[in-house]
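#random but structural
TW: two for the price of one
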Amino acid sequence: MKPIKFSREETKAIVGEIQDYFRDELDQQIGSIPAEMLMLFFADKMGAYYYNRGVYDAQGVIRERIENLTDELFALEQPTKHLR
């Protein structure tokens, strides 16, 4: 897996979310540099878990769609004397 990289705009938004969390939930202030360092730590150490969860969820959606498509294809089948 490639390292998770965020654009400058994404980084700014995430840092803001971290700062908001610290302020609202922990009643503490955190600067933008420590917040960005925390973001990079989580991206490095936890990112693969979130990434893999997304992959597993996508696989489930694809599997469900294929099953539905298979059912729809069988519904198009015309009756014949030949048995499958």
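TW: number two ↓
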Amino acid sequence: MKQDKRGRQADREALLALAVYALYFAWWYACGYGLGSGDPETYDYVFGFPAWFFYSCIVGYPLITLLLWAVIRFLFRDMPLDADGPAPEERDGKQ
């Protein structure tokens, strides 16, 4: 059975979402455990927060939000999900 273009696009979008989440987890883990693994007496502080918290939670969240916006805006495609609806290429007259 041949998979249509919508299925391939949905698979691609799912893999992109998982990749972005994995990147965010790696960022959070590296900042949280990399900068926060030492003695709390020796922590560096940024705006009153420990550096590990500032970079992993306060900086990481807006960065990943902007990355997700860009991925969704430029790499995701609008398509009908019903079985009877035409694929976007067919609907627009392109094949």
